[in-house]
Design goal:
It is a single chain. The chain is of the alpha/beta class. It folds into 2 domains: 239 residues, 3-Layer(aba) Sandwich (Rossmann fold), CATH 3.40.50; 179 residues, Glycogen Phosphorylase B (Rossmann fold, 3-Layer(aba) Sandwich), CATH 3.40.50. The protein has 17 helices and 14 strands. Strand 3 and strand 4 form a beta hairpin. The longest helix is centred in the C-terminal third of the chain and has 24 residues.
Length: 425
């Protein structure tokens, strides 16, 4: 079976290309397992930062598509100025030429964040769309944490001059949402992971056939286990988030302030993925009028896989604070190593955790209950340990490599059979 993937990252070729990409590790993990199947010939098409010829690496054929002006700051400036949505005809023509060259039996598009899914309707090959996030729903909650007016007020003049302002980002998101709606409305076969994405895709495409396939996580997280015998003193909280407005950084700060004002001060909170010098942190400082040096918070920025794993295993409670998510891999990785977790009841997280069984779920954007949940676990190590054990058991089953590969192969075969029957109807 010849399978062509369209992906937002080069997957397993990151290493060969020397790309420092922090996201998408689960795709590389799935690719690694899929190419082991003798009857699968896998090709991957992705947008590249430079003009590269097709190449093969570790059993996969890669087809880079150079996105002009994406490799320089000036080029990205021009795209922001023009509010490009990347769904132009020239790019679509390039994608279709890759389809013609590979001539696959089936096409699997990973994510609706880019324009890959627009190839639907232009080819006679069956296309499966995998859901990562759903921009339409994310955009609805985009400014739930830091309001648009607040960011616009405190972001300064430089982002406005260089078209990186919150206003420009908002317009860019609106364009991407339009593109995504077009993709989902035409999708016949959709793969998701949570009740959240199942419901939303049904809204956009009631004729779609929905499948559930979980994700294979990064190898090292299967091999290590959180084995604390008691909590550290001070207790160590940890979160892995990005610089997006909806990821809940302000919930962390508000929760920290509540804890400290309630005389619960024997803790520190580590934030992976954001540096203190990042713009979102500067805006928060101005908005909240807070000296972060007085808070028990440390920003570590991006970390490599082994560094992140070390931080998780030496911490006590993993805290997921987003206002909207589908199935955040950072939370899944924390569960897989068997950490006590607190997560916001947002998007698909309730499909990952059962409240008071594998962890604690709290209302998103509500720091009082979040602070209360932290105190509850911090004062009851045995309860936290029970949650952690149950979380690991659920994650091991959910992210089982063998099951996931077989589920995906079964879907490929079903889609091919269904498509053939439709032709003969």
């Amino acid at each position: 079976m010849k399978v062509l993937w369209f992906t937002n990252t080069p997957c397993g070729a990151n290493e060969k290309l020397g790309y420092n990409i922090q996201n998408g590790g689960w795709l590389a993990s799935l690719e690694k397992e899929l190419v082991k199947q003798r009857d699968i010939q896998l090709s991957v098409c992705f947008y590249a930062k430079q003009d590269l010829p097709p190449f093969s690496y570790k059993g996969t054929s890669y087809y880079p598509v150079y996105r002009k002006n994406s490799d320089t700051k000036f080029g990205r400036f021009i795209y922001r100025f023009l509010h490009k949505t990347y769904n132009n005809r020239a790019e679509l023509t390039k994608l279709l030429s890759i389809v013609s060259e590979v001539n696959p039996d089936i096409i699997h598009v990973h994510g609706t964040e880019d324009n890959f899914g627009l190839i639907q309707g232009n080819i006679n090959i069956p296309v499966i769309i995998s859901i990562q996030g759903i921009l339409s729903a994310i955009f609805h909650k985009y400014f739930s944490g830091i309001p648009y007016a607040v960011f616009n007020k405190f972001e300064g003049i430089a982002p406005k001059i260089f078209l990186a302002s919150v206003r420009s980002q908002k317009r860019g998101m609106i364009n991407k949402v339009k593109c995504e709606k077009s993709i989902l409305s035409k999708a016949r076969f959709i793969i998701g992971r949570t009740e959240w994405d199942r419901s939303i895709t049904n809204f956009f495409s009631q004729q779609r056939i929905y499948f559930k396939v979980n994700e294979i996580l990064r190898d090292s997280f299967y091999k290590k286990v959180w084995e604390q015998k008691e909590f550290n003193k001070p207790i160590r909280l940890i979160s892995v988030i990005s610089k997006s407005f909806y990821k809940g950084l302000e919930t962390i700060i508000d929760s920290v302030l509540l804890l400290m004002n309630n005389h619960f001060r024997d803790f520190n909170w580590t934030i992976i993925g954001i540096k203190e010098s990042d713009h979102i942190v500067k805006v928060l400082k101005k908005w909240k009028k807070i000296d972060f040096n007085t808070l028990s918070v440390r920003f570590l920025g991006l970390k490599k896989e082994d560094e992140l794993l070390t931080e998780l295993l030496s911490s006590d409670i993993y805290c997921q604070v987003s206002h909207i998510e589908n199935s955040p891999n950072s939370l899944c990785e924390a569960m897989l190593v068997g950490m006590p977790v607190i997560a916001t009841y947002a998007g698909g997280t309730s499909s990952l955790i059962t409240h008071k069984k594998e962890g604690i779920l709290v209302q998103e954007g509500e720091p009082y209950s979040y602070a209360g949940a932290i105190i509850e676990l911090a004062n009851n190590f045995e309860l936290a340990r029970q949650y952690a054990k149950a979380a690991r058991e659920r994650a091991i089953k959910r992210h089982d490599k063998y099951t996931i590969v077989n589920d995906l192969l079964s879907i490929y075969r079903y889609v091919l059979k269904q498509t053939e029957e439709d032709k003969n109807f």
